[in-house]
## 1
Amino acid sequence: MDRELNNLIEQEATRQRDGLEMIPSENYVSRDVLAALGSILTNKYSEGYPGKRYYGGCEFVDGIENLARERAQALFGVTHANVQPYSGSPANLAVCFALLQPGETLMGMQLASGGHMTHGLAVNFSGIYYHSVQYTARADGYLDLDEMRALAKAHRPKLIIVGGTAYPRVYEWAKYKEIADEVGAYLMADISHIAGLVVGGVHPSPVGIADVITTTTHKTLRGPRGAMILCDGEPSNFLKAPPEQSRQYLPTMIDRAIIPGLQGGPHNHQTAAIAVALHEAAQPEFKTYAAQIVANAQALAIALMERGYTLVTGGTDNHLMVVDLTNKGITGKQAEKALDAAGITVNKNTVPRDPRKPFDPSGIRLGTPALTSRGMKEAEMTQIAEWIDDTLSHRDDADRLEAIKREIADFTRGFPLPA
Ligand code: DSN
């Protein structure tokens, strides 16, 4: 009925189909995830948790939320999962709300080093309501554990956050936990980017090491937009404040931070779609998918380096890479625009110690989860590196970019979308 809106959705569908989606935090969901997300569950209010709601008529949404929680607990191997956070930033806000009083100290990874806004950026809630200390990556792009330890000892944070959006290497959870223990801090692992790699067995899990884990559900995990908070401890009773703030009571502290602390009604359609995605991620073929994401990223990284591109840390262990374009004489913003014109979607990104600003930084960030969901493999990554190089080398030649875009649209026909 709404032609104006429908046209825009159709155009976006064509863009997603005909182009190469290389933003590492994006993916294509299955038809089943899409169906659950687009279901009538959006009509229902259900503040509270299963069995303890403030509204009637929750018997079926209770079943749905229980299914999502149980699947998350089984898949990750934790005793408690909160599946209600609206997305990743609210999930991280909830953990801060649960563990810290305003003005207390948290320590997180600097955005330019690959962290996230909610890990203590000065203009984010996490940097405004808390005393934020930021650790960085070394000049080679790897996390600087010596600096992390020295900062922790100097500032004694109550919470240390590890995880990020543009870190191409393995997170060494036990080492961060050692630092957290040395200063008596909680350790939070934000595995939003790598959750699918963790459950696919191609990245070490923080379960059993970190005190709290947050993750979005729409990146490598290939679910709907949403998030979860995972932890261990005594069963939650969100109606009663725990006698003290301690690890033992983390499930209750987290649940109370979500509601009544921060959120109202859960998005039941989103919860159902998360349950579907968790079921899909528990299938044996998801392990193959996760391994292929990493194999593709490594093939793409090698092909780009062979063409003279500088990668932060000199490569990747996961699903993403950050290309420092300084030696090519292009900014990240120029590269993003040229690649867009050629049908390749990436995002401009800062590099560690970037002299430029985030809105016009020195690099771009590339990832393989969405391409891998279309069935692309290593050979296709080499072809894509060639298109990226061609585009960036001829970025002012509109005809050339248009020709590449047509070639890419032809090529993508061989790799249909999951939904
Ligand atoms: N926006 C996400 C990303 O692209 O990594 C992080 O929140």
## 2
Amino acid sequence: MKKKALYQADSIKVLKGLEAVRKRPGMYIGDTDDGTGLHHMIYEVIDNSIDEALAGYCKNIDVRLNSDETVTIRDDGRGIPVDMHKGEKKSAAEVIMTQLHAGGKFDHDSYKVSGGLHGVGVSVVNALSEKLKLEINRDGKKYFIEFINGTAKAALKTIGKSKETGTEITFLPSKEIFSSIKFNANTIIKRIRELAFLNKGIKITFNDLNNKKEKELVFKYDGGILEYVEFLNEKKEKLKNKNGNDLFKKAVYVEGKKESIEIECSLKWNAGYIEDLFAYTNNINQKDGGTHVLGFRSALTRVINKYANEHNLLKKNKLAITGDDIKEGLSCVLSIKIPDPKFSSQTKDKLVSSEVRTIVETVINEKLSIWFDQNPSIARIILTKIIQAALARDVARKARENVRRKGALELSGLPGKLADCQIGKQEGTELFIVEGDSAGGSAKQGRNRSNQAVLPLRGKILNTYVEELNIKQNGNKLTDHRTKALSKMISSNEIVTLINALGLDPKSQEIDLKDLRYGKIIIMTDADVDGSHIRALLLTFFNNKPFNKLIEHGYVYLAQPPLFKINKGSKSIYIKDEKDLENFILQNSKDTKKLKKGSKDFQKFIDKEKSQMSIQRFKGLGEMNPDELWNTTLDPETRNLLQVQYSKDLKKDQSLIHTLMGNDVALRKDFITSNAINVKNLDI
Ligand code: 0RA
């Protein structure tokens, strides 16, 4: 292509670019109806001056609202370049003001960190201005160029001499674009103050010529974000030291740079409970945080926990400090500057650049650790506040869990419904785990309400036996086994209800015996095969970790409800099982013949005596009336409890449980066949 053709092609591109901006201004500058876009016009120009300042060439920025609806932004930077652009026959200044994203072409030695909310450049401001005047002081001269709706009225010209350097832009926002062009001074002041905090040392002044009463406002903070944190804390109640003075003479301030990411962070705690955290990337606030905030939080939590551990501050409280504890009363400003940030959306409300997280975490971790080590007396007071928060949270959590547990038990449609006892402590209280609702009903009525609780379970509970894994194959055998058993247990509503009733946490790996709500856990099932099965299932559950601790410490018992009732005149005698019945018959018969137990004659004799007596065989606990149940099974004075204990041969115990409850059916069949000889009465 020839030079001329190239020039025309470029001109067309330029026109198209600014046309696109005017067609969809919202996409470039923000909402044109609610004022955000209008104010971004000012911020876009200021951001360019800030970039000049960050590059080290500018110290002062002046912002002025004029009485003719225009606004002027002036800086003492290098001034926008004025040299003729080769090929285009236009000054660099004109190109910068009329081409989208042209700024970078003329400035290779620094990256733009501010770049405005939309990072679009001053050309967008020009495109959306009815009128824009640009004055440049550079190379000893004063230059001038004026634009109408984005198009230069004439080429850049020299209008005088100048000893200074800098840029001054005055613009009138287009009434065709914006619903209103009235600026809000307070909105601008807020942003200017924020920028002054975020960029230490830069002086930004504000003048509103529409408000005669208001004098010039000057914002300059040599302490930068440290002063920002002090400002945030001004009206808050101070955290005090021993002498009653503000604990922090100065907020904590740390900074560092790693892999072209600059990180600055300042923070201090006040006496309140609210967190005030402001995160910025390239001077833009992320109200939804992002990777920089995540990195900061993990570093802070790590530093605080490390300090607490190194100074033995947690031991006696048995606590872990969480991020939530640290947050209380924390005011913090986190500001990073990074070449090419990635945000989750156009509005830049959340930073997503993933590399930022670890870099921020590393820098903050290192610098904050040093600060804590160098300020032990302040650190101790901060830690005291945080540990108090952790303690309060722990108490609140326990209370909440209590309420939740109670609520679940009282309101739930879960199969088991606990009838609790009145005494609220472990000592002297008992929980009866009862099979079925009818037995549960008798037990609830017959018990001593003050110290005996009843939890009826409906039918067979889940078999929670989990096969032992092969030890040699799997190094993680123990943990695997535990998680499997635990998830199996938690999958059953009945079992979760039981665990809750015991006062324990179904998901916990360890049991604190102090949490246990009852001193005795008594399994009370019918004296038939179903009852035995349910008892076996319950014991299988109690044999699982961590609940086996309850067996080991002797908390688990078996009730011994009678199987027979013999009416003798007006008296009733209760008899536990078949064997006791035989003994009873033998003792009470007038016939004192010596017969060999198990012989045919012996059996005949027993059967004869039985038929002469009034014997009732209980088919279940539900058949007993509440009084009978109290007298035979519940009353501590007369009942006979069996304590569940492991034998001396733990391996043998576990192998028996494996045989009875495991997956190996053949093994179980063998066991039953070889033990069947001992079974005389099978009630099916
Ligand atoms: C492009 C290149 C250079 C400076 C600027 C733009 C610049 C733009 C604005 C807008 C408002 N104030 C500004 N100040 C500077 C670098 C110039 C050089 O290398 O000398």
